[in-house]
Amino acid sequence: MLPMVDLKKQLLEIRDEINAHFEEILNSTTFILGPKLKELERRIAEYHSIDEGSSSCFAVGVASGTDALHLSLRASGIKEGDEVITTPFTFFATVEAIVYTGARPVFVDIDPETFNINPELIEEKVTPRTRAIVPVHLYGHPADMKKIMEIAKRYNLIVIEDCAQAFGARIFNYDNASAIGGESKSPFNSEKGVGRLVGTFGNAGCFSFYPSKNLGAYGDAGMVLTRDEEIASKVLMLRNHGSQVSYLHEEIGFNSRLDEFQAAVLLVKLKRIDRYNELRRKKALLYNSLLDREKVKVPVEREGYYHVYHQYTLRSPVRDTIQKRLREKEIASVVYYPVPLHLQKALNFLGYKKGDFPEAEKASEEVLSLPIYPELPDEVIERIAEVVNSI
Question: End of a domain among 236, 270, 304?
């Protein structure tokens, strides 16, 4: 079966470098909150630093993308009785993190082209209890952060970006601010400038380094990015049992630490992330050129946005037929996501029903993600496209 992602191919290039890091860690016997994590935090903060004077970033490694969201919300003061606006079309962790705080998720339907939260529908859901918005940069396409931030400013709302699928995605010409890369600074789209990276617009940006992500560890790992030193300090404390000084605990915290081995893997891959993302984009453009537009709708990349294609997701009213045919040809494909969050059994207590968010519901019936990763051979993409077009 042709997989959605082949991590073994990527490992061939970086195995020796990773092994050298692992050997160093083993010899040091420092496995938790050590120098590799500190270096990773520094480099990711540098990668996302904003070119607007003193506004530098802080990065805090945590155990998963889910924890990044949860701890960011807690550090921002989200609590029981608050309302947090988000999308019903995303992975369950987004809403899980909100529920962990005791706040109530409030859903807003999606833009049918980008699959991201529709900013035109957010304002009507704002109430006196609304405290935050959690936009998701789904599949690697940035959400419309300009409009979202305008709404947040108007109503004094916190914004926590879910960047789990979008490391390196960016928006160009956003209020003339540009993000600059660290060691991984990239020459792409030089005619547009480097662009402002997702995770730097809101109060905090939350990343997942699950193995299949564009920037993936070899286990669970996550990161909180923020320009707010108070949020960074609070997340640092919360990730370590509510403690800043050993055995002195200021509040009930959590065990959410990104270990040295995962940090080492991410350091090796971070140097290559822009190249990985460019290769993903080239694979996506090849798919676009080969797929029959009368049979499927290919992914959209809005003008001024830089899509990193964590997933290559098409739409079709005969999605199930396409997936069946691909399976017969031993080609993997996945539906992200078959049931929108407002219809999940675990969230019945929110009181939503079928028909409340028609665009999210329609997307769940039509989306299909095809294999995409930097090392995916072009001839394999041609074979996949041929199967899809044969329907």
Answer: 270
